[in-house]
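Escalation from tier 1.

The customer reports that the assembly of two entities below gives different structure tokens on two consecutive runs. Tier 1 could not reproduce it. I'm attaching the input and our single run for tier 2 to review.
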Amino acid sequence: MAREEIGKSEAAPASSLETGYERLGFWARIADNDVTYSFLRSPLVMAAAGITVTFILAAVFAPLVAPFDPFDPTQISLWDGKLPPAWVQGSNPAYFLGTDDQGRDLFSTILYGGRISLLVGFAAVFLSMALGIGLGVAAGYLGGWFDAFVMRLADVQLTIPGILTAILINGIARSVLPIELRDELAIYVVILAIGFSDWPQFARVTRAAALVEAEKEYIQAARVIGLRPFIIIVRHILPNVLRPALVLATIGLALAIIAEATLSFLGQGVPPTTPSLGTLIRIGNDYLFSGLWWITLFPALALVTLVLAVNLLGDWLRDALNPKLR
Amino acid sequence: MFSFVVNRFVQSVLVMLTVGLIAFAMFRFVGDPINNLVGQDTTAEQRAELRESLGLNDPFYVQYARFAVNAAQGQFGQSYFHRRPVSELLVERLPATLELSLVAAVLALVLGVPAGVYTALHRRGVLSQIIMTASLFGVSIPTFLIGIILILIFGVMLQILPTFGRGEVIDLGWWTTGMATPSGLKSLILPALTLALFQLTLIMRLVRAEMLEVLRTDFVKFARARGLRTRSIHFVHALKNSLVPVITITGLQLGSLIAFAIITETVFQWPGMGLLFIQAVIEVDIPVMAAYLVVIGFVFVLINLIVDILYFVVDPRLRVDRGAAGGH
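Tier 1 run:
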């Protein structure tokens, strides 16, 4: 914002040279955008966006969409357990995708599970973004020992795959917590573990962008007029390094959802009482050999569809925001 | 060259010391080591005595130094859960994990490189499109799910392959191998495939991208102008030059294979280090967790070091840049 002010005061007489783009309204500017153009050109990307939005809406409005409430014990009956999907013999048509081992409607449970998967995914990405961008920008702008320390730390962590770091942080955090709080706090522990395991990517990208930005004249000008480093970082550098971080965040969301599912599958994630998609797959895995394929298959399909859609969006966003490829 | 190697070596040692510090902090501060060693009927005096004799009252850095020296000799103390020396457990489990990871790595290379070359040479081909779409699925399906799907198809529906354990294992004294018996080899197929699939897509995409890049360079155009056969241009000129980054990434990925082996081993109940580790996490068996961390850290650092040196050997341009200035 402040950058625009400086830009305006300097470039006021030159505004007639601009294409009139600045004068367009918000929506008009979006419609006229390169990114919007490439979005509207690709049916695959539009489908991916549609699927992602559907998943998010279904997650947010799960209590309204779902025919049953899987957390309400009065609606669950063990007698209805392990029922197959509606088109298979021996099913109960009330449960379209069948039921799990405890008699919970699978469709409703998937909706609520997607809610938890998405919640953990978004929260974890937000955490690693905040951490990575904060450290990256500060390291790039301040330089010196702080830069060296943060980047070495990122290097060390990058040599170890994120999922291993997440399992370790998660395991240690769980063992420190008292047993009665473990299930209750499990979801926050998972968010912290995944968030802390993915920050180096963001730190690297934003540091590189911050280094480039710090050399530019408007930053030198800001320094000359005596702004404090904190103000310069937050108001001038930060807005300009967000673009590469945004691409990473989309791919990071897919990775975080996979990480959550993996932790839950390993029995280290959210407990079976509030199942995520990964927990459901874990439950189903125990019944795979008894022929109850649907408990695993439907949550798995939901998970893969969601991750695939987010990955497609991430791929597209990376190409669309990369000026080299235009 | 020498100074480069020394520099890398010092860095590796520093990384190992950091990993060791984390492992030690875990070991020392998560739970009370004394409580985990003795029963409930041990008196306070006995505990204090044990604490003193184990050196738990020493300053932090003395304890850390002792831990580091012991770890360097492969001593990680007793497992709380198994009541056996951790080093023994690790040595027992190591062959299973290494066999699985190596077979997976070979599988990923043998299938991934040709697939990458093919999709790069026939960009618009139908088969290339199919392979590329399949690879996107490969990236989007979590490892554990690939395992479950394979179990469902080959174990439950077709019932032709075993889905858990290592099968019959031959004990060579210092090494146990499942690769010498039919049941051992059969048991290896599904876990190795599961572990390889993600790396396979990665290597394939990498080879494809590198090939496309190299095919655009001047020396390939020049080779075409000289009238060389297409086949020889593709495989002698292009492929050879696109393999340098592939070596690097594959080397680095070998480490992540071992990490992902945790998941694969859990799905297939494969008795390797990964399964040991995940059980340790569930049982809060801190010495095993700490030891696993140190061992894995060591493997990673070793691989990084070797890859760095290999890179230096494979790519002559690096040597010229770093050698005496004005050499060229």
